[in-house]
Amino acid sequence: MRKPYLPILILVFAVLFSTTTQGQVKDNPDLTQKTKTVDELLKSGDKKLTARKYKEALEDFNKAVELDPYSADTYNYRGMTKYFLDDYNGALADFDKAIELQPDYAEAYNLRGVVKGELNDEKGACEDWEKAFELGFKNAFVLLKKFCQEKFK
What we know:
It is globular, with a radius of gyration of 15 Å. The chain folds into two domains: 28-87, Serine Threonine Protein Phosphatase 5, Tetratricopeptide repeat, CATH 1.25.40; 104-153, no CATH class. It is mainly alpha-helical. It is built from eight helices and no strands. Helices cover 73% and strands 0% of the residues.
């Protein structure tokens, strides 16, 4: 199956990992260890994703979600992995959850737009890319211009 959004998705993925929050809570050692473990799982999953070991990456991201079900980043990463596994409905559910947890998550809107495009929801994809752009994700403009021509006539 052709993935017309793949180059943009790869760029988004690289930017996302470099900006993932790495916060720690000093007053709670258990929470600090949990945060460290989630960060380690995200890094491990990232390496596996880059190596195209999607099923192994998914295992890491599933564990990260179990450890921190309130982190938008964990759902966003898992959604990207599901996208690469052609599980578009699963990816859509993860991006929905990431946005529910963090309504200003521009990258999640952008990626959800990619999945909606794969599911032939052109209107939904364009709405998500527009929202991503409004929230400051400037690369969404490329997708808007290429796939949402009615906005630029």
